[in-house]
Write a structure and sequence with these properties.
Blueprint (H helix, E strand, L loop, with lengths): L1 H12 L6 H11 L10 H15 L14 H11 L2 E6 L5 E4 L2 E4 L10 H4 L4 H22 L6 H14 L3 H4 L8 H7 L3 H6 L10 H16 L7
Antiparallel strand pairs: 1-2, 2-3
Length: 227
């Protein structure tokens, strides 16, 4: 893998140049891998990404063996943001802490539970967050049948924390399963991640940014929740 990895690494650096595709064609011919001559430049990029994770020693595992990493927890909490007082989220639902749903109704229309009337601390919000998190982990474990890298699992948990535990099954056209789930379970990981870009509640700016961040996490393993 060594020489091939180095060559791909160099070629990927010139991925956006006109010379990239001819260079990779020439390379595969010179190494006798003629079956790869028709491979497109984007496919080489995917090959390189897989080689990067292979070299790092990371392995995909069954979702049933995974839970959200510490970096994943921090990533989701950063996107959710902390609010000490009850507020109406972008859907108009009464929420508090790190995106903890109180009720699917506006705060002014309900009687707040006693524990939330005077607001909560970050510590209390953190406990609520960790209590709620397993339902989204279990949803990924239930709905995704292909093995995942840790960062892929974290990205999907973040998506479901925001959209709901049943989203992968019911968030598609006509209330059917999403293309995210279909593609990943077919082994088309990158295509599945790309489908997240459409989950923005008709282009809500904050959700557009979050989806881009989750796609970046899924594809590249980069935990960047800056926004």
């Amino acid at each position: 893998m060594g020489n091939r990895f180095i060559k791909l690494e160099n070629d990927i650096r010139t991925y956006r140049t006109k010379s990239f595709y001819p260079k990779t064609q020439s390379y595969v011919k010179s190494t006798g891998q003629n079956h790869l001559v028709s491979t497109t430049a984007p496919e080489y990029a995917k090959m390189y990404q897989n080689l990067v994770f292979a070299r790092s020693g990371k392995k995909r595992e069954s979702p049933s063996k995974l839970t959200t990493s510490k970096k994943g927890v921090a990533f989701i909490k950063e996107w959710e943001g902390f609010r000490s007082k009850a507020y109406n989220d972008s859907e108009g639902y009464c929420t508090i802490g790190y995106g903890h749903l109180i009720k699917k109704d506006k705060c002014e229309n309900i009687a707040l539970p006693e524990e939330f009337k005077d607001g909560i601390t970050k510590e209390e919000a953190g406990k609520l967050f960790l209590k709620r998190l397993p339902q989204y982990e279990k949803a990924v474990q239930r709905d995704i049948t292909k093995p995942l890298y840790q960062h892929e699992f974290d990205a999907l948990v973040s998506l479901l924390f925001n959209t709901g535990a049943n989203f992968l099954n019911t968030g598609g056209a006509g209330g059917k399963e999403t293309k995210i789930k279909k593609n990943i379970n077919a082994g088309k990981y990158s295509e599945g991640a790309d489908e997240m870009a459409d989950v923005t509640n008709r282009g809500t700016p904050g959700l557009v940014k979050r989806r881009k961040s989750e796609i970046k996490l899924f594809k590249k393993g980069i935990y960047d929740a800056s926004h």
